[in-house]
Amino acid sequence: MPVTDVQQDLDNLTLTITADFAAPVERIWQVYADPRQLEKIWGPPTYPATVVDHDLTPGGRVTYYMTSPEGERYAGYWLITAVDAPRGLSFDDGFADLDFTPVPDAPVSKNVYTFTPHEGGTRATYVGTYASAEALQKVLDMGVVEGTSSAINQIDDLIAS
Questions:
Q1: 48 C-beta neighbours (distance < 10 Å), count
Q2: Most buried residue among 12, 79, 108, 115 by CB atoms closer than 10 A?
Q3: What is the pLDDT of residue 1?
Q4: Over the stretch 39-72, which tens digit does the pLDDT of each residue have?
Q5: How many angstroms separate the Cα of 127 from the Cα of each of 15, 36, 46, 88, 97?
Q6: Which first-to-last residue range defines the signal peptide (predicted)?
Q7: Structural contact between residues 33 and 42, judged by C-beta atoms closer than 8 angstroms
Q8: CA-CA distance, 53 to 4, in Å (whole number)?
Q9: What is the maximum span of the chain, computed from C-alpha positions, in angstroms?
Q10: For the whole model, what pTM was predicted?
C-alpha cells in the first residue's frame, strides 16, 4: 500500500496524505497529466471516475464524475492554480452538480500535490487545506480519508500495468 501516513490537523485546517511509489517522479506525474490514467485512480475503486474536461494549465479546469455501484453520479471539479511538471500541481477541488457547476455550500479544498524522488521511487505528498474546521470535519465525516487513501492505493496497480 503506497499510503504511508495520514495527518488530520483541525487547527491548521489541513489533511495531509503521504504515499511512496516504486516509480520515478515522471511516471507519477503522468498519472495526473493523462485523463485516461487519472480516471483509473481518482475515486475509490467502487466509485470509478470519468474525466470529462482536463486542462492541466494554470487557470484550467478538470471536471469529472464518479459513479456509485448503484449507478448514481457524483460530480466534482478542479480549478488549476499552479503546475510544476513533473514535480507537482496545485488546484482547488470542489463538488459540482452534474452540469459541473460548483455547489455553493459544499466544502472546497486548496490542494498542493508534490512529487519528489525518494529511495529510488517517488514520495507523493497530498495536502488539502479547507476554509474552516467545519468544512474539514464535513469531508472527514464523508469518508475522505478512506476514499482518498483507497484511490491513491490504486496507483501501484496502474503503474505496474
A1: 17
A2: 115
A3: 77
A4: 999 988 899 999 999 999 999 999 999 999 999 9
A5: 6, 23, 24, 11, 24
A6: none
A7: no
A8: 31
A9: 43
A10: 0.94
Cβ-contact 50, 64 below 8 angstroms: yes
Which residue in this structure is represented by grid cell 469531508? 139
Amino acid at 107: P
* 153 backbone dihedrals φ, ψ, rounded to 5°: -65, -15
CB 111 within 8 A of CB 127: yes
Say how far apart CA 160 and CA 64 lie, in whole Å: 24
Cβ contact 113:124 at 8 Å: yes
Is it true that the peptide bond before 86 is cis, omega within 30 degrees of 0?
yes
State pLDDT tens for residues 96-130.
999 999 999 999 999 999 999 999 999 999 999 99
Cell of 108: 472546497
Closest CA to 5 of 118, 125, 144, 147: 125
Q: Pull the grid cell for residue 33.
A: 497529466
Query: What amino acid is encoded at 100 in this protein?
Result: F
What the chain holds in terms of domains, given with CATH numbers, is 3-160 (3.30.530.20)
Residue with cell 474536461: 53
